[in-house]
Automatic annotation (TrEMBL):
InterPro entries: Methyltransf_25, SAM-dependent_MTases_sf
UniProt domain Methyltransferase: residue ranges: 74-165
Transmembrane segments: none
Protein name: Methyltransferase domain-containing protein
Entry GO MF terms: methyltransferase activity
Amino acid sequence: MDNQTSYIIGTDDHSELKTYSGRKYHDNEKVAYLLPEDSDESSRLNKQHLVLRYFLQKNFIAPIDKQLEEGITVLDSGCGPASWLFDMAKDYPKSKFHGVDITNTFPEEAKLENCEFVLGNIGERIPFPDNTFDYVHQRLLLLGLTKEMWEKNIKELFRVLKPGGCIEIKEPDLRDLCNMGPLLNSLQGTLSSMLASRGMPLKISVELEGRLTDAGFENIDHSILNLNLNHNGRVGDMLWDDYYHGCMNIRPVMAITNPAYEDLEAYKVFLNECSAEAAELKTDIQWHTCIAKKPLN
């Protein structure tokens, strides 16, 4: 293998794009992802990774440090611009890392021998053989999968994981924030209505444990951390900046449900008011992590 990151271009479910307010969004019934497909969103996802790593102080919590150091095969499902994947590949050079996503936002200038990328729709089929991976990582897809896609996705994660392998899935609860005031409740209510109209479960974070059990996983550990939204110093500021950026990027789609969001300047004022409310009330987002094993038999 040469010194270049390996890229495999898949052929399943290529996604067409449509434009709202100057931003490109997916326009394919098999792709539910609601955030835009452009350089600004890729930049947001890269910054989001740094924020989460800063807050959590590591990239994973599954008890697999020793295996990663010795060398295992890892999948990052829905990897986006591969921020998590590249961090892990640098930290664990003996392990082999694979990323899969619906669009090619992988950084082509990267040069890591132990990374490989493939295009694929994780809500339909993950393009790898059965029993391929020792560890599977997936996070932040609540705005990307319908209820039916989640069912297929978790079954696919089970299929590609080796017997005895470990899975780690992480999702926030964006419907019921802790210490949520009326402004954020209104914003999250609009998001909830929009997702419900598209068959997407906003409370997937609290459903993960049950869905993993139904798919056949065992030894499930479900933990919850509170992410401080615009309070508790630098980390709260960083989390709010990411939340604000995400709200701005999804605004054109949210405006279909709530026409009041069509006015960009008014929307910015509204988000700034939400910011002050979150700081005053010390609002938190609950971050759910589920770690589980695929049975040996």
